What we know:
It is a single chain. By secondary structure, this protein is an alpha+beta fold. It contains 3 helices and 3 strands, in the order βββααα. The protein has helices at residues 34-43, 47-51, 58-69, and strands at residues 2-4, 7-13, 20-26. A 3-stranded antiparallel sheet has the order 1-2-3, with helices on one face. The protein is globular. 18% of the residues are buried.
Amino acid sequence: MNVIPGGIWAFSPTRTRGRLIGARAVAPLAGEWIHQASLAIRAKIPIATLHDQVAQFPSYSEAFQTALENIKYRKET
């Protein structure tokens, strides 16, 4: 779980496949960035790929990127 100003982010990753299987966000404007996690889960996008994405609204995605950085996983090769 990651504490951000005014709220929290929490991801549920697979440790062996390097993907998200769940995400929670409770914060002001959480709806502006929870879609990133939702799409990643549905499309099975690797966490390594999520690190390289360019956000439509960079200020909203900073919390998302910070939370991703705290996930420990085995990178896909």
